[in-house]
Structures are given as C-alpha cells and as structure tokens.
# Entry
Amino acid sequence: MGKGTHFLGQPILNQLLNHFNKQKILQTSREMGGERYVKTFNAWCHLAVMLYAVIMRFDSLREITSATMMEWRKLGHLGIKDLPRRSTLSDANARRSHEIFGKIYQGLYQRHKDKLSSDSPLSKVPKWMKKLQIIDSTTISLFSNLVFKGVGRNPKAGKKKGGVKVHTCIHGNEGVPCDVEFTSAATHDHFMLCPGKLNKGDLLAIDRAYIDYAKFEEMTRRGVIYVTKMKQNLTYEVISSTCYMNENGQMQWKEEFVIFRKEVKSRDEETGEVEKKAVEHHARIITYIDERKRGGAKLVRLLTNDLETEYGEIVAIYKARWAIESLFKQIKQNFPLRYFYGESANAIKIQIWVTLIANLLITLLQKGVSRSWSFSGLATIVRIMLMYYIDVQGFLEHPEKDWEEALAALMESPPKTEEAGK
# Structure
C-alpha cells in the first residue's frame, strides 16, 4: 500500500514552524538574556514545545511531557534533541522573558500582514476599512488574586480570583492583533487609547469604556476620527438637533451637534505640579433604530468627532468593531486558557503569547488555501493531525484526493473470478 498523495517527510507541526527563522529567534533570545545558563532547552525548543501544547489543548505540564515522550521519534524534525522534563519546562516558563515571545509574534505578523489584509479588487470592502483600527480588551480569569489583581469586590465566601486583561488593537481588514498589552483585570481600558500612536486620517472604532474627553480632543487636533457608543450619564450642551423621518412618518435617525465640557487634571512637564485644565470637545451624536437587536428594535446612540460623514457610514464603522469580539471568541473557543503551565506572571504571559502565535499560524493557513474552511474546523483538523507526515496545504485543498484515487483504481481493476469446478 502506498503512502498516499499527501505524504510529506515532516509533520504538520514542523510545517508550521517553517514560518520562523530559527537562528533569528535564538539571536533575539540571546540579546534579551533568554539563553543565559541554558544548556539544551533553548528558545527554539521552548517555542516548539509550547506551540505543540497549545494547539493540542493540554492542561498541565505532565500532559505535555507525556505526549512528547510518545512522539520522541518525530522530535528530531523539530530541532529538539532531548526530551523536556516538567522541571525544565517550568523553569523556562518562569525565567525566559515573555517579551521574547512577543518579539516572535510581532516578527511573524510583520512578515505576513500583507497576506492577512482583504484588499482584493474583487472583494466588496469599503475604502475606510484599510484605515480602521479597533481597540478592545478581554479578561482571562486566573486561579489567584496575587499575580494579577481581579476586579470587583471580595466575595463573602471563598477566595477572590485574579484576572489578566489582554488589551488588543487590530486593523479592520486583518482580523488578528497588531498590538497587545497585558495588565491586571482591575486596570481601566482607556490607558490603551494613545492618540500619539495614531496618524492623520486613521479611523478608530472603540467601546464606550474608552470615552476620555481630553484624548478625544487631542485626536481631533491630529485629524483622527473615532466612533464609539454613548454612555447614559454624559452631560453636554446641544448646539443643534435634527430628526430625519421615513416615508411612514417614523424616526429613521437623529443627529445632534454637541459640546462636552470638563475639567481634567494635568501635570506640568516643567514644574511637575498637578493643575486643573478645562477641556471643550465638539462632537456629533447619531441616534438610530437597530431592528436586528435581540428582543426587538432598540435605540442606539453613537458618538463621533466626524461632523460630515453620512450616518450610514458611521453606523457601519461602529458595527465593524464586532470583528474584535469575534476574534476574542475564536481564541477562547479553540485555545481555551483555563489552565496555565505556571503560576508566575511571566509564565502566564508566555502562554498567552504562544496562543496568539497559534491563532496567527492557523489564520495564515486559512488564508493560504482556496477551499473554504471555518477557523474552528481548521483548528480541529490541525490538532488531530499535528504530528502526521502529510502536506497540510495540499490536504486542505483536496482532502478527498486519496479516497478518489483509491476508488478509481478499484473500479478499473478486473473482477476476480472463481476457478472452474470449485
């Protein structure tokens, strides 16, 4: 029996690792102190083992070491000469800086960002999508409140769980994180809103947790457009208000030009003294009826500093913010971060970085095949066949090829006849 048309001399995990430059990773690790006092378990081995564990959805160090022991014949293709022990992997997660894995993720993203963008002339993507950035955060619950401080009150019974908040920025036409920051769950979201990192003409879709008048005014001066959702307790002065009706005489949407005024504290750069400063921000509020809301139609109020663009486009920009919510759901469903391979903050961050790397690799695989695959289905196939010696690209393009060829050969072979007299 043949090996099949999809046979390849290296497992799928090694094909995924081919996206990286081993020597560059080791050099980066050496420059950042990750190879100090290391004999065999270097940054490349660390990345390979952690990527294997995250894709296979292992829950403990014991599962990782037991699985690698069973696959020891294939580890040579991954550049791993010695089987990692639990103590070795635990020590590496505690000592090797998580920033090394952040550098690895950023390098992979920068090399393949052109493949991620949906800028094809055939795709019906709005022009503003190329300039759109979406910022949001997701909280990952932890086992203790000592490493990362949790949010909320202390419970009456039991211990308060901690949480790490992953602040993420994505481009609207890419769907993967381009900037990631980690804080405790108690940290407010608006620290991620940095007008200095934005360029003139950029669009920003954000949640209402990021409302900050001083930063909004700075963004307006820089020529950056934001769209967010209104809070209920905001106070403002209405300059003008216009209500637009449909053919039946019902309100279709409402437009208000408003001014927000607030005194904020600022620190003088020369003297270092804290002083109050009055901020005045001109904005526009758009109210429309969203009929696709669960439980019936609801009024939605959006806030933006774009005073001219049509309301339909403003609504579409805010609805595009849902892409980051889908990303968070995708990661948590396919790479559940319920159990961690270490108790230190560094180990937790390493596991999150490797999860983001695995998400990016499977997204690149999804973009690289012409056949339509859901991310969840693709992640399941990769997990099941991770150590199989098959060409993953060719298999995903035509998974039925071996079966079709075997069936065709069976149909062409002449039928066997019984000998005469028997």
